[in-house]
Amino acid sequence: MKQTLLEVSIQDSGYGENHKIVENLSFSINRGEIVGLIGPNGAGKSTTIKTILGLLENTNSKIDFINNHTYAYIPERPVFYDELTLWEHLDLAAGVMEIDEVQFNERAMRLVRLFHMENVIHKLPSTFSKGMQQKVMLITAFLIKPDIYIIDEPFVGLDPMAMQDFLTLIELEKQRGAGILMSTHVLDTAEKVCDRFLLVTNGKLRAEGTLEEIRIKANLPGSALLQSFNKIVQGVMTNE
């Protein structure tokens, strides 16, 4: 039996009274599943995520983190405190989530080593490369072990080894029972790791379900996710 962690119901949401980006979009995230949020540029994926996070004022929506489940957000563009080192960022996150010192040190060092960041733990992330900054965001999120991960374009800037490490950790978190919502343009990778997909175009949910269900929607049995995605998007563009 599926256990729902997050329910999202967006009647409309955007950046002003007359600037609605997303409309009539509803879905849920269940325990132990990875859901891919996919769509072309400008489709409304980031607006959907911002609505879930409560970052938009102009929204008519209901976002329910059931039973106050915890979440971690990994943004596409890393954000840091300029005056804090990598280790101080991790220590701050651990303090907020009330992780005890022994667990913190064990988890933090394991993740730092996994992403090969040992030599910069006492340096400022604001001075790091884009890829290294993305690693810091990943380490911080995996450190706190939330019930839900909300991830926006995690592969941007990651080298192949870091990408594989990220995918391995995501699979382990799924097995632990975390729910993962991941927005991405890397459809060949999403096809391999996601259990379900939400295809959004022009601010509306056009298709959802497993890869097989997306293929049926596109009338392309046995196709890759990218082919089905393109077929559905082209159909929407033709009809609107």
Written account of the structure:
Helix 3 runs antiparallel to helix 4. The protein has 240 residues and is of the alpha/beta class. Helices cover 40% and strands 25% of the residues. The mean pLDDT is 93.
Entry summary:
By secondary structure, this protein is α/β, with parallel strands linked by helices. It is built from eight helices and nine strands. Helix 7 (211-218) crosses helix 8 (225-239).
Helix content: 25-40%
Say how many strands there are.
9
Radius of gyration: 18 Å
Largest sheet: 6 strands, mixed
Compute the number of helices. Answer: 8
| Residue-averaged pLDDT | 93
In N-to-C order, the SSE pattern is: EEEHEEHHHEHEHEEHH
Distance between the termini: 38 Å
Proportion in β-strands? 25-35%
Q: What's the assembly state of these chains?
A: single chain
Structural class: alpha/beta
Q: Low-confidence runs (pLDDT<50, min 5 residues)?
A: none
Spatial sequence of strands, sheet with the most strands:
5-6-7-3-8-9
Question: What general form does the structure show?
Answer: globular
Name some characteristics of this structure.
alpha/beta, 8 helices
